[in-house]
Amino acid sequence: MIISMKRGATQEQIDRVKELIEGFGYRVHESKGEERMVFGAVGDERGKERLTCLEAQPGVEKVIPILSPYKLASRETNPRSTVIDMGLGVSVGSTRLLVIAGPCAVESQEQIMTVASALKDSGAHMLRGGAFKPRTSPYAFQGLKDDGLVLLSQAREEYGIPVITEVMDIASIEIILEYADCLQVGARNIQNFQLLKQVGKTNKPVLLKRGMSTTIEEFLMSAEYVLSEGNSNVILCERGIRTFETATRNTLDISAVPVLKEKTHLPVIVDPSHGTGHARYVEPMAYAAIAAGADGLMIEVHPRPEEALSDGPQSLRPHEFRKVMEGIKRIAAAVDRTL
Ligand code: PEP
Ligand code: MN
């Protein structure tokens, strides 16, 4: 921690601050500039709340942390990029990209099998499909629940492709663990700390989707909740944030990719479907994400988007998805990644 004194702080104020820092158990490193005194408090930053309170002390201008508050997620403490095993030979975080695709919601056996077959043919690595859906309206389709999980796992068996599905509450973790290879925590639950702690107690990979108004630091603190419970398999997903813009469903924050990659060793993927809300913008944003350094993508695909029970307008048809996969392959090669 750096404690910067105000210009014109009295000697008495400076001495008192030094005494307090030492009293908290830190060694003090003094740096006397032309205009002001700056202290470095050297010691374990975990007890830094007490130092932060020094901002209330007369003569103190600012208390600045040096280390990030997300110890386990941080690249400072863990410089090597984490590679996560997603099951059935699929992984994320290496030079090989991960493409997760599938419908917003599992709707029927015919729907999920058709999609799974098409995705497998196009080279996607993982199948997505919501069984428990977080809908804005309580009257909208809420998902097939347990039946949806069964259908998803049937597709998993049939096509040998790992599956991911959303876990909305603590009560459904157990059943989802039985069927899915990866647990998705949705944007609306990204600060549901009890849920994060509970998925942190499992040993399945957890994909965290950025909340609509979650800052990067808050997002990383949510990852920290999962990591601190012992589950080190966390993947971050940028899916757009709320801004004043209404031309797209959300504003896909592509800059979050290099920022996150700099701050954390965890894999970062991008969801251009929720990020834009329109099928025709998915392709360019998928390419932008890979060019920006993302470790993978999550893309919604539906055999008949016009009949989809949720998120039809942003869902690609299987043949459109196939074309996007071709493009991703070319962009990947340009940035030294493979598909
Ligand atoms: C989804 O993946 O279908 C979903 C609901 O996403 P998000 O939580 O990002 O809105
Ligand atoms: Mn969706």
Describe this entry's structure for a reader:
Strand 5 (84-87) and strand 6 (90-92) form a beta hairpin. The strands form three sheets. Strands 7-8-9-10-11-12-13-14 form an eight-stranded parallel β-barrel, surrounded by seven helices. A four-stranded antiparallel beta sheet has the order 2-3-1-4, covered by helices on one side. The chain has a two-stranded antiparallel ribbon with strand order 5-6. The protein has two domains: 2-64, Phospho-2-dehydro-3-deoxyheptonate aldolase, domain 1 (Alpha-Beta Plaits, 2-Layer Sandwich); 84-334, Alpha-Beta Barrel (TIM Barrel), CATH 3.20.20. The chain is built from eleven helices and 14 strands. The relative contact order is 0.12. The chain has 339 residues and is α/β, with parallel strands linked by helices. Helix 6 (193-200) crosses helix 7.
What attributes characterize this protein structure?
339 residues, alpha/beta, Alpha-Beta Plaits, TIM Barrel, 2 domains, eight-stranded parallel beta barrel, 11 helices, 34% helix, 18% strand, binds manganese (II) ion
The CATH topology of the largest domain? TIM Barrel
Low-confidence stretches: none
Record field, number of beta strands: 14
Based on Cα principal axes, name the global outline: elongated
Q: For the terminal residues, how far apart are their CA atoms?
A: 42 Å
Q: Strand count, sense and closure of the main sheet?
A: 8 strands, parallel, barrel
Give the helix proportion (percent range). 25-40%
Query: Class of the largest domain in CATH?
Result: Alpha Beta
The share of residues in extended strands comes to 15-25%
In the CATH hierarchy, the architecture of the largest domain is Alpha-Beta Barrel
Structural class: alpha/beta
pLDDT average, as an integer? 96
